[in-house]
Amino acid sequence: MARASRQSDRVNLEQVSVLLIDDNPQALDILSSVCQGFGVKEQIRCNSALEATEIIKRRPVDLVLVDCAMPEMDGYDFIQWLRRESPAATRRIPVVMLTSHAAASRVNKSRDCGASFVVTKPLTPAVLLQRIVWLSTDTREFIESESYVGPDRRVRNMGPPLNIPGRRSGDLSTHVGAAVEANMDQSDIDSMFKPRRVAL
Questions:
Q1: What is the DSSP track for 31-56?
Q2: Which pTM was predicted?
Q3: Fewest 10 Å CB contacts: which of 32, 56, 157, 158?
């Protein structure tokens, strides 16, 4: 992703191309308006993840913003496709998952499919912009293994991905169940994506 350049205290995203994916036209309009407010000139709007896969096959983009819940192919499946099956030049594109269901199980599912960040709806422009700026300086390694492809997800109390040497017996399971618990705060979600060093 092109680094966000600063002019004084202002972030300049004029040169960044963004792929917006949401099956809800109103939500897509809002997302587009927010990005326009950030100075993004090149926006590619998609009403479905399947449509987005065809675009990614033809050209790379700098950033993807995708809703988690869509028919046919949802945001989780799209990210897994992007990380594993898309052209090699596009597999490391930063992806922000947008969700109105911020239960821990959904956040874990987003992280485990290879999302770079999760942002909750209703969308707050300041939060989204902060995550985009963080992504422009993200130093996490990109992991490619049989069980996982995406930014290094070894965060907080999670250990290495399953089947990777060094996984501790006490690490949390990556099993994703139905969302039955209360939604998490955005700060709690962010803490799940902030990496820390893990002794192997």
A1: HHHHHHHTT--EEEEESSHHHHHHHH
A2: 0.74
A3: 157
